[in-house]
Structure formats: C-alpha cells, structure tokens
Amino acid sequence: MPHEEIKLSRKDLMSVESPGRYVGGEKNQIIKEEVLQQLRETGTCREVRTAFCFPDIYEIGMSNLALQILYKILNSVDYSSCERVFSPWVDMDKLMREKGIPLFSLETRSPLYEFDVIAFTLGYEMAFTNVLQMLDLGRVPLRSSDRKDDDPIVVAGGPVTFNIEPVADFFDAVFIGEGEEVDLEFTRKIKEYKDGGKKGRKELLKELSKIEGVYVPSLYEPQFIDGKFAGFKASDGCPEIIRKRIITDLDNVDYPTAPVVPNNSIIHDRAYLELFRGCIRGCRFCQAGYITRPVREKSRDVLCSQGIALERTTGYDELGMLSLSTSDYTDLGKLTDGLLTAFEGRHTSLSLPSLRIDNFALDLMEKASMTRKSGLTFAPEAGTQRLRDVINKNITEEDIFGALKLAFKGGWSTVKLYFMLGLPTETDEDVEGIAVLAKKIEDLYYDTFREMGVKPRRPEITVSTSMFIPKPFTAFQWEQQNAKEDFLRKQAMLFGLIKKSRNIRYIWHDVDTSCWEGVLARGDRRLCDVIEEGYRSGLYFDAWDDRFDYAKWTSILEGHGLSWEMFARGYDTEDHLPWENLDIGVTTKFLKLERERAYKEQTTPNCREKCAGCGASCFKTGVCYETR
Amino acid sequence: MRQDERALEMTRQQHQTQYMMRTRFKRTGATSFVGHLDLMKIFERAARRAGLPLLYSQGYNPRPMLVFALPLSVGTDTTGDYVDIAMSVPVDPEEFTEKMAPELPEGLEIMSARSIGEPKKSIMSLVTAASYAFDAKDITRAALEVWKMESVEVEKKAKGGKIRTADIKPLMIKILETSTPDHLEMLVYAGSEKNLRPDVFLKALTVHASYPEDEASECAVTRTELYTGEYPDIVAIDVFEEIM
Fold it and tell me: Cβ B45–A313 below 8 Å, yes or no?
C-alpha cells in the first residue's frame, strides 16, 4: 500500500474550533527525514513507527508529561520513530466521518492504520471511549481478536492500566508501570517482527508477554462464578503475575529537556521539571501514592541543569515543579534557590503545586514570584480529625491554622479547600465538620486582622468537594462506594450549612461522573462490550461534563445484565479482584493492614519517619534504602 | 486597548528606554492557524530562546513588549507584516535576525529587521492601508463585478449581537492585479480608523456577485503589505522608516 499524506483543506480547517490543534509544526517537533523519505519512495520503512495517542484533545494531551517523555525516548534510537495523535474534537470528528478522512498523525500526517504500533497513554478512565473513537477513525479494528498479522499492535500505558480489564479486549498488550525502559524493549521486539515480514501475530503476543511489565490480556482468561469475577486462567508459558516496571535511577534516564512547544495555548502552558516519583505520605485512598512507590528522587544537580536547559530550549516563562508532594523533596529550598539564581533577570517564575503551606513555603512562593491572586490551596480531604486519621492524611487543624495565620498576615486572602465526600466510616458529623472548618478559617481571618489593628478586605474561601471513588491497589480497594442518593444528600447538607456565609463559596463535582468512574475503576472484562456499545451509540469525550450521559450509560450497563452495584459494592478481602494478576510491589497484606488501621483510626508514619514495611523495598531502590 | 498596546503604554509611563526592533515577517502553513495572542506568544518565546535582551514592562506582572502593526485573523497568511519588539539594550538587526531564525516554528520567517530606537508613534497608529492577495477559482471576475458597484452593502455583526449593514465600497481603494482569473490583489483601507477585513470582502462577493460560498471559504488570503500615509501618498511601513 502506498503511503498516504492526509491534507485538510483550508476550508475544513477554518470550519472547526481551534484549527491549530490539527496542523502540528511546533518548535521541537521531531520528524525523522529518513523515515519520511522511505515512506514516500516505497510506502514503508525499516524503522518501527509508533503513533503515540492521547485520548483527548490536543490542548490536554500536550500538557501531559508522559507524552513528552516517551515521544523523546521513542525518537532517540535509530530503529524507532514516534509521532503524535490526539482525539479530534466533536466538530472535526464529524467532518472526518462525513468526508471519509482517516485520523492522522501531526508529524508526517500519516493515517493511523499505517503505523506499526499504536500506543495510548491512559490517565483517567473517562477517556476509554476516546480510545475507541481514535481507533475507529484511524481505521484500526477495535478488538485485539479482530486484528490480522498486518494490523498495528495496539498498546496502552499510564496509571489506569493498573486495572485495564474494562478495556482489555481492545489492547494487544499493556505496559504496567513506568515506560522509559519497557517501551524500548517492546519496540525492539516489534522491530524483529517487522523485519520478519509481520508473520504470526499470536506468537508475537506470547513473546511480548515474556517482557517484564508487559501484560497481554488475551492470554489471561477471566473466570466468573455466580456473576462475580473469580480469577484468571493464564495461558501456558505466561507469567501468573505481572510485576510493574520502575526506573531505578531517575538521574540517568532520558528526560525531555527540549519538549515540543505548542503554537496555540494549551491547558498547562509551561515547562515541567519532574522532581521525584512516588510519595512518602501513604494517604489510604490515593492510588497514585501506592502504585508509584518507592519514592525515588532526582539529584539536585541533575534537576538544576535540566531546569536551566528547559527554560532555554522552550522559551517558557514558567517552570513547573512536578511530583505528588513538592514539599517532600529533600533540599527543595536549595533547588529553588539554584534555579531562581540561574533565572535572574530573565523574568521566569517557578510554579510549585502541592506545597504544604508553612513558613518556608510562603517564603518560597514569594521568592518564586507566584502571584497571590491564585491563592492558597489546602487539601484536608476530610472535615474532622477523626476522619483524617482514618484516611491517614497527616494534617491537623493546628497545621492549617498556623500556616493560614502567617499567610493572612502576609497578604493572602484567597483560600481553596479540597475535601472528599463518602470516605469510609464517614458520618454526618464529618460532613458538617467541613463547614465548621471553613467557618473557623473565616473567623481566623478576621481575628488576625483585628490583632493587627487593620481593616481587612473580604476573604475568599472556597470549599470544593469531590466524591470518594475506591481505587485498585489502595487500602480502600474493598470499600463500598456511596450511592448517588447519598452523595446528593451530603452535598445538599453541606450547601445548606455554607450558603449563609458571604465569604465562603461551595463548589462540587458532578455525582454522575463519579458514580460511573466507580464502575470503571473496579470493573472487569465484562465492561468491554458495554464500552463498545456506548461508543457506537455516540458516547465519547465522557471526561467532558456536557458530553457525559449517565442515564444512557446506566441503561447500556443494565442491558448487559450488569449494574452499578455489582462494581461499586463492598468487597470481601478474600474476593478475587480483576487486578490480582498485577504486582505493584506493595503487598495485599500491607493494604489489608492499612485498612484495619483505618478502621481503628490509627495513622501510619510516612516513609521517612519509619518504614511501614509496605513491600516496595523489593525494587531495591529509593527511599527504602536512604540512610535515616 | 489591546494587550500589546497596554504594555507599550506602561513602559512609556515608566520611562524605560526602548530599543525597538521593527521586524518584517511572513507566515504560512501551521502558524497561520493560530490567533493573534498566540502569535504574540510564539514570537515572545522564540526571542527568549534566542537569548535576546527583551524589554519587560515593570510592576506586578512584567510582560515583554511586542506590538503588532495590525492583528492577523486565524487562517490568513502574510508576506508583509510587522511587529515591533522592544529590546532593553541596542541590538544589531542582523544579529537579531540570525538569532531568531532557528527559533521560530515552521512557517514563520523574519524577512528584515531594523533598529528604530524609540518610535514617536506606535506602529499600530501608522497603519492606514493594506494589500491582500486572494487565490481562488474565478475570483477576479467576481471582484471586478463588485468593484463596479456604487455601494456594496454587507451585513455585519455589531457589538451586542445586533446585525447592521455597512457599505464597504469606500473601504476598497484599488484593484492591483487582475491579469489572471484565479489570483486577485487588492488595496484596502486598514488600521484603527477604517478597516476592511478580507473575510468581509469575500462575503460581499458571495452576496453581490453570486460568487459560490464554497469557493470563498476555500480562498487563500495573504496579506502582502501594510502601508502608512494618506492615499495616494502611501508607502510600505518599512520604506517609511527609511525615509524618516
């Protein structure tokens, strides 16, 4: 088949919103000339071609660090070439279907079906349907079982793969854990397959399953007893358990210091410096905290030189520090001092999300010229100390008030507070506690000014609640999720308590979305049919509130003899779980122990205070081996 | 006031010395599909990557000063547009062009640059006319037909969503090139006082010369030059600098 280059007409581009999404051509984009030349001459090439797909629009995908990291790595070796593909928004989707234009890559404008590998990064479950949209528009068979020897190999990576079962049928292989090394090992195997003329897809998949961290869903048959998941039957010669991959030494892994700089504005328009992976905190609801263990830091010298390079190669005037908990980086002060010195006179600011607010942090924010307008953010997650102990969120009212008093004196007047509704053991008293805490903060604001003898302007206090969703590989993976009615009642109750205050604003997440996410998060392979039917009936871009249709999803789910309750129910700790064939290092025994401690309202010290023996030390690196 | 105007105004008030680099550029391809503010950011980031000494406004939220002569609509190419970029110290124009060239994304190119010190009038207030090229099937015939009309009424959306009609004939100055059926060049009034947007002109062709809407929306529009002075005594903006 000759190579095709998809050209959109001026008229087509001008008829859709933000046409800049579909044209590529950004600074630092990588086009391998030798690949393009071979394609034009022969219709194919020697290199393995990967289409890196992000199942949402350009503006969101281009803000994703995983994309930039793996794009660079897959273009760094001579046998591989990687291009970017994003979900076309509804207007462009419609146009492409009407005119029969296949989904194409931004770099060489090749249709998706021409690629050897189609790699999705999955950051949230609500993007599942967009995977199907992209495959469909790219003319690639949706299901692994329908693909022939010549068809692309469709793979996925990212945090959602820690339970990939609801979409397992659509992927040929899935990467569990961090991708930098495994992606190249995989690509080398595909290179052999391509060199051999692409024969024997089944054997290839079997081969792939032998790579550590690669899960080939078709080789694991889920069993069901009485409508309940009852474990997997692994094919002969496949590992029973797939252990996640991690990068042992983050200092010596390739990092994109010259990322693609978009021409049009994106969601997070700044350069990113990743400080460390993992989190020492151990919040019991937090999947990210568990699946990324153990904590591994990059050294200050490496970060400093990467930060300087990033600022020079991108031209961004903002450098964002990325990690699960910025304040936990050892020597954060020295790192930011080093960077700020290097940026002297260049009008570059640092952004430090997820800081624990204290004296040091306030000082740092001032120096980093982070604007006061953006306000201070706290995530107490629960309204009472009791419930904060249950979830192991080691933050006390004294911590919050102490920090806020300093902040108010320093001129801050905007505070955002994040909470979750429906946490295990939650009572109405805990929900009320949220309003009480917000009220105390309002009082503290006025008291602080009274002490100073200054007339204050009005504070802006925002209370935001999301819904607790039990996630795989957390201490709460067996918990019952609150029903829709419970969530709505709690939201209404809280709204009633807050609405009288002039200075406190209450915003809440959509309940329906959280209920559906609850199904997907702990779903099993029976959901594949549900998701495909949903997509076929026009449901995609579910992550967009105005596109999400819970009623329709529920009716499709029920049409397949399934229900919300079947997945959102409380599980027995001896029940089989759809992610039981994966191993994150942290043991089930530890998760059970953490669950028991939660019920006893006991906290667990963080990794640097005292090792809790979670099991992640099996990776022989990181915080587990730091000298304390 | 536009964002770039505001930044300029601020530095004036703050008595910072500006070493303005009047930059003539062209854009085609991918960068033609971004909006005005994004184009500004593209130039700003390119200059930062190039390590050029940008002049920043002072105060709470310092911004570099890039002032475009006339905003470009999304989808419009240009072969003759101008942006003034303020430097904090004198920079050799050749060095400026050399450093910027590799930093601009595909489709953007600096054609020439000239140090103009501190301009007495902002570049925006200089613009009085613009020439555009239209490439589309049989466009010349339709344009000539409209050109012969005494008045050319077009519906325009005014502020607040109200629709009013306006006569655009007085905004059309001259047809410059009619020798081929599919390529038209035209001189129109442009700038803050009187301005004819190319899409409005194309709309007039569909209304008054039964030009097919399909062709109009496929039409490639290129701004070819910006002028200053009072017609007929107009000169291209970079020529104007030479005379000064």
Answer: no
Report the relative pairing of strands A376-381 and A414-421 from DSSP bridges. parallel
Query: pLDDT per residue over A151-200, tens digit each?
Result: 999 999 999 999 999 999 999 999 999 999 999 999 999 999 999 999 99
Give dist(CA A279, CA A290) in Å, integer. Answer: 8
Distance from CA of B80 to the nearest CA of A (A): 20
Note whether A570 and A480 are within 8 A (CB): yes
Give residue limits of the domains in chain A: 10-223
Distance (Å, rounded) from C-alpha A39 to C-alpha A32?
11
Of how many residues is chain B composed?
244
Whether omega before A294 lies within 30 degrees of 0, making that bond cis, reads yes
For residues B87 and B161, membership in a common domain is answered with no
Strand B172-180 relative to strand B183-189, pairing:
antiparallel
Smallest Cα–Cα separation from A72: which of A54, A87, A52?
A52
Residue B90, domain CATH: 3.30.70.580
Tokens of B189: 């009034």
Q: How deeply is A625 buried, as exposed, middle or buried, from its count of CB atoms within 10 A (0-12, 13-18, 19+)?
A: exposed
Write the ipTM.
0.93
Q: Which residues pair with B186 in a beta bridge?
A: B132, B175
Instruction: Measure in Å the smallest separation between the Cα of A194 and chain B Cα atoms.
Output: 32
Band of residue B1 on the pLDDT scale cut at 50, 70, 90? low
Class of domain A10-223: alpha beta
Domain containing B56 equals 3-120
β pairing state of A173-175 and A214-215? antiparallel
The Cα-based distances of A266 to A18, A261, A271, A399, B155 in angstroms read 11, 10, 12, 35, 34
For chains A and B, count residue pairs whose Cβ atoms are closer than 8 Å. Answer: 82
- Residues from chain B contacting residue A315 (CB–CB below 8 Å): 44-49, 103
What's the pLDDT at A316? Answer: 96
SS3 state at A243:
strand
